[in-house]
């Protein structure tokens, strides 16, 4: 089913030709372009001076070799990436991902999505993303430190608090950010706290940053439900993943009175009809760095572990895919709809395949795309940059209040934009157009550069 305006099809054709073999980037570009036909009909000026073509082309793509030495003394080689996608609104901002699946297409799709996500926050940050095909799983702290230091030896020449500000993502948490920041400081001889976000509290980090993406997704979900006179209280929820995003989404759902009955990792998922015990999940993932299968051993009776399979087979009213891209298929969507799903909000980046999104929309299920629903992480990163610039440190409560305010504003901007463009309740169209217009207006004001 082609929903693309005929004026925009040649642009997508060029994106696909110029970026061959990068299906995730093609998917992200199509998803945005499908929303823009309404914009160029109402505002034809946005199709002038190749503005949309320029937005689809990264400003800079960097690929580099990362040699490092493992604990046995063997030299290993990985590949590093940084895509600086768009700086119309501010310095490039986006996380670094360490995972075997990482390639230039994945990083490009993430950077493209990040551009619009960052625009939606209303904060002065552009879009970028980076990473490596390095797999931290099973590696010692010393191996991870040596890899991070080698990674930063090349990356440092391309970043800075007024140029490009990376953060964490899958496989990159506070430990990895600390190793990279330490090497950046040594290489540059500058204590430039604003060059990386997601830092530890002892050296310029922000309270609530670890919790922000998960909390933000839940704030957005609660706001969606409130438009229907409802809320998370008493709702049966499923959250995929068990990293930072999932853990803190579970925590905030529970504070809103919802019950999370399942979560997962890449090996399988656990179901606990009494409600997931968050303390056990935190012990497994944050302390032991273990696998979700251990939950059954620690919790005892009343729960079960399913190796492989799909977590979306578990009946629920609220689904938050918080693991990775394209994890929720059309078949999963059909199962969720059949089981009575009410709302789906993307805690990860593009976790729902396009066919799944269309099924949700056709069934009138409230659906929040990641560029809106999971913007809380980057929003709080921008707040960390603000604190670093003023040499200040806010309380957890102040930071979370700002996060809640930003997520509510993002929700309202998406909803209002969808109404304005004759698509009431369509958060995909609302998010894409609201983000695009902000970036496009900045680019038009700066001329053809």
UniProtKB/TrEMBL annotation:
Oligomeric and partner information: Homohexamer.
MF-aspect GO terms: glutamate dehydrogenase (NADP+) activity
Pfam family name, one: ELFV_dehydrog
Alphabetic keyword roster: Oxidoreductase
Record carries keyword Ribonucleoprotein: no
NCBIfam families hit by this protein: PRK09414.1 (NF006929)
Organism the protein comes from: Ahrensia kielensis
UniProt family annotation: Belongs to the Glu/Leu/Phe/Val dehydrogenases family.
Entry protein name: Glutamate dehydrogenase
Taxonomic lineage: Bacteria, Pseudomonadati, Pseudomonadota, Alphaproteobacteria, Hyphomicrobiales
InterPro entries named in the record: Aminoacid_DH-like_N_sf, Glu/Leu/Phe/Val/Trp_DH, Glu/Leu/Phe/Val/Trp_DH_C, Glu/Leu/Phe/Val/Trp_DH_dimer, Glu/Leu/Phe/Val_DH_AS, Glu_DH, Glu_Leu_Phe_Val_DH, NAD(P)-bd_dom_sf
Residue ranges occupied by any Glutamate/phenylalanine/leucine/valine/L-tryptophan dehydrogenase C-terminal domain in the UniProt entry: 206-447
């Amino acid at each position: 089913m082609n929903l693309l305006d005929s004026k925009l099809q040649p642009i997508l054709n060029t994106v696909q030709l110029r970026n061959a073999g990068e299906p995730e980037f093609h998917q992200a570009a199509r998803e945005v372009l499908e929303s823009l036909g309404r914009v160029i009909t109402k505002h034809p000026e946005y199709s002038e001076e190749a503005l949309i073509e320029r937005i689809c082309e990264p400003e800079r793509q960097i690929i580099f070799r990362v040699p490092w030495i493992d604990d046995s003394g063997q030299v290993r080689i990985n590949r590093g990436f940084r895509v600086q996608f768009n700086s119309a609104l501010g310095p490039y901002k986006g996380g670094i991902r360490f995972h075997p699946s990482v390639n230039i297409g994945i990083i490009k799709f993430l950077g493209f999505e990040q551009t619009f996500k960052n625009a939606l926050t209303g904060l002065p940050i552009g879009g970028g993303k980076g990473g490596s095909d390095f797999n931290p799983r099973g590696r010692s702290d010393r191996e991870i430190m040596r890899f991070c230091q080698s990674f930063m030896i090349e990356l440092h020449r391309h970043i800075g608090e007024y140029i490009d500000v990376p953060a964490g993502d899958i496989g990159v948490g506070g430990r990895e950010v600390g190793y990279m920041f330490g090497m950046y400081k040594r290489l540059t001889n500058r204590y430039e706290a604003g060059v990386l976000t997601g830092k530890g509290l002892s050296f310029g980090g922000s309270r609530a940053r670890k919790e922000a993406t998960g909390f933000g997704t839940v704030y957005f979900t609660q706001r969606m439900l409130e438009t229907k006179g409802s809320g998370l209280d008493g709702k049966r929820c499923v959250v995929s993943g068990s990293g930072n995003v999932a853990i803190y989404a579970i925590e905030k759902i529970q504070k809103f009175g919802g019950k999370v009955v399942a979560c997962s990792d890449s090996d399988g998922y656990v179901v606990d009809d009494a409600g997931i015990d968050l303390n056990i999940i935190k012990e497994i993932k944050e302390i032991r760095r273990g696998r979700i299968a251990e939950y059954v051993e620690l919790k005892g009776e009343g729960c079960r572990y399913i190796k492989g399979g799909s977590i979306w087979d578990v009946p629920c009213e609220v689904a938050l895919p918080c693991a990775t891209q394209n994890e929720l298929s059309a078949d999963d969507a059909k199962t969720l709809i059949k089981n009575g799903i009410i709302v789906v909000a993307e805690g990860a980046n593009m976790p729902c395949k396009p066919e799944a999104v269309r099924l949700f929309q056709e069934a009138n299920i409230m659906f929040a795309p990641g560029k809106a629903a999971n913007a809380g992480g980057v929003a709080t990163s921008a707040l960390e940059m603000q604190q670093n610039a003023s040499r200040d440190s806010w309380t957890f409560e102040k930071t979370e209040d700002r996060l809640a305010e930003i997520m509510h504003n993002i929700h309202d901007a998406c909803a209002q934009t969808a109404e304005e463009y004759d698509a009431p309740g369509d958060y995909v169209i609302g998010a894409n157009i609201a983000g695009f217009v902000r970036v496009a207006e900045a680019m038009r004001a700066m001329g053809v550069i």
